[in-house]
Design a protein that fits this description.
By secondary structure, the chain is an alpha+beta fold. The chain has 10 helices and 12 strands.
Length: 457
Amino acid sequence: MARPSPVAVWRQLSLRGRLTLVATALLTAAIIAGAVLTVYVVRRSLTAALDSSAFKTGRDIAALPSPPQVIAANNSGVVAIQIVDADNHVIDYSPGSDAAISMISKSQLADVRAGKIVSVRLPGSPQDRIRVLGVTASDRTVLVASDAERIDQSIRIVRNAALVGTPMAILAMALLTYFIVGRTLRPVAALRHGAEDITAAGLSDQRLPVGDAQDEIQRLAVTLNAMLDRIDVATTRQRTFVGDAAHELKSPLASLRVQLEVALRLGPTTDWQEVVGEVLVDVDRLDSLVADLLMLARIDESGGALRTREPVELSTLVEDVVATYDSARVPVSYEPEAAATVEGDVDGLRRVVVNLVDNAQRFAHDSITLTVRAVGGNAELTVADDGPGIPADERERVFDRFYRTESSRSRESGGTGLGLPIVRDLVRAHGGAVWLESNDPGLRAVVALPLRPAPPS
């Protein structure tokens, strides 16, 4: 079996594991870099201190007018002292150093006299490695040897401490990070469990838990709950719409069934001409209802966005619509007050005017009047009739889908209960508003649409 790649392993880790791994890796890199830097700084500091002590010893001896008979090495890391001439012959020496052989070669003497420090090993010396520097005085040179092994011992102590402490620190940091990340992600786990418990059937009374901390997770929970509110509203609206549509479709279908069953029972005595006429009435109701349902479905699917957007002369559009009602039951007149150009979908705006006029046709007694005028930055279309009107407390509710007033606007009047809701949705898609007012007597429907900005001169 092939071993999984590091990328595959990384993808299989939880977010808690990933954050812990990343934090531990960064800490490890930081500790290693810090340990290396510490060792380097300690070595430089100890070497500088050792060399400074050796130079001071060399300068003190070189400052004497004549070589001392016995040179005493101090206890600041200096292990041997020799005074040599230009040919590297030993003139004087300290106890523990060779009396005849210089501790450095003649070539190294030249480097020492030039200010360099050389590292040598002395035969028979307990020190593994010594550092030799020189202080020149006339034709003689004071050689001072320091114990470099002391530096190595100090570095080993620091290194061993780092080798022991680093894994412990990394382990402690990994455990602490795992714990802290787990506590931090606990609200996320609560969100996940809350989302698993939410069902579409119980969406109305189920929401995600919101934490007390004012952090990103709390804001995410608030945003998700707001989204669930919108989904709940849309789902409820959809259920209501489907139920109302099924109820509205059931009535004409039931009427059709009854008429056909009666005609079949009557047999040869059936007046089929009358039956077909009554059936066609119900078919027309079904056709109108299906057309309105399709229009609302398109509006909902587009999310209120317009399919097209172009300049529309509202007065011309209203004139064209009014011309189609020449033989209507109630005369329709148009009184233009001002030209008004709006921007939007021509078919959608025509549907607005037609629905308002058809609605007025069902309930008007003698006249229907349309006007178009410019008010501020809006174009106002008014459709007024002289019918029974609508009570003030119901004028807003008639824009709900399938809603009908109890008194005058019944299903038998021919309406589907979708005309005004379609008007409202189309007007909102154009950035406008629609409302109903009393016409005393009758009803006046007012549509306000934003005027199209004038082109720059």
